[in-house]
Design goal:
With 243 residues, this protein is an alpha+beta fold. It has 2 domains: 131 residues, Alpha-Beta Complex (Ribosomal Protein L22, Chain A), CATH 3.90.470.20; 100 residues, Ribosomal Protein L22, Chain A (Alpha-Beta Complex). The chain has 5 helices and 12 strands. Strands 1-2-6-5 form a 4-stranded mixed beta sheet, with helices on one face. Strand 5 and strand 6 form a beta hairpin.
Length: 243
């Protein structure tokens, strides 16, 4: 059972803006979560996105082999800068990032207790923002070419594997479970260094997701996990710390 101060009504979902010009959004209140989404193949960003990136971001972008992957990275980082700059009232190009030991990005100079996370997969992009609480988000394109039962047997808990076998469409159930677990470990800042079998998420097609944690069962009460059904053919989830 999850006891949460974050209510579903306080999660606001919007499509990403098309331009940085005159775009302003107010900082989330303490009980608000802002989620922004876009599909990069059809979303037009009216600015010189390449000019916003720092030298290290350019270097990371050029490590991608394929144009689509480079373009997705360019969109994600430039849009993240646009959204952060709008919240903070600063220039997108002036923002500098720091990274945790597990690669989670934060602002190098935190302002206003603003917390964020992002995820992208197959052209779908998600950004999540809040204040004073840890947050994680994940999106994955459903792939039918994977042996999901074999992957689940290696990474999922016993309870999740039993639940997965009950669903006729194992791929949809697998990606629902995977994004929920990934959002949770990203919110905690641990990445995949957190053993995925030490906690359970529900696998059912539901908005509010149940969470069980081990060895401390009360850890689950400090988090809310929910599904984000924004893109056909994708699974997505949000995890946020409760205050």
């Amino acid at each position: 059972m999850i006891i949460s101060s974050v209510k579903t009504a306080n999660v606001t979902v919007r499509e990403c803006p098309n331009t940085a010009a005159n775009f302003v959004c107010s900082m989330p209140y303490q009980d608000e979560i802002h989620v922004w989404h876009a599909l990069t193949p059809v979303h037009q960003l009216d600015l010189d996105a390449d000019a916003l990136l720092s030298p290290d971001e350019h270097a990371r972008m050029m490590q991608f082999r394929f144009d689509n992957d480079r373009n997705n990275f360019l969109f994600c980082r430039s849009m993240l800068r646009v959204l952060l700059a709008s919240y903070l009232g600063t220039s997108p190009a002036e923002l500098r990032f720091a990274y945790s030991a597990h690669g989670k990005p934060t602002l190098a100079e935190p302002l206003g207790n603003l917390q964020f996370n992002l995820s992208h997969s197959g052209g779908a992009v998600l950004f999540a923002f809040c204040t004073e609480r840890r947050i994680g988000v994940d999106v994955e394109r459903l792939r039918r070419d994977l042996n999901v039962q074999e992957i689940a047997s290696r990474f999922f808990s016993d309870a999740e594997n039993r639940a997965l076998r009950q669903y006729p469409d194992a791929h949809e159930a697998f990606f629902r479970c995977w994004t929920r677990k990934e959002a949770f470990v990203k919110a905690r800042g641990e990445g995949l260094s957190c053993p995925l079998e030490t906690f359970d998420v529900s696998v059912a097609d539901e908005e509010q997701v149940s969470l069980t944690t081990r060895p401390d069962p009360f850890e689950a009460e400090r988090w809310q996990v929910r599904s984000l059904n924004l893109f056909p053919g994708y699974a997505a989830a949000l995890a946020v710390e409760c205050l």
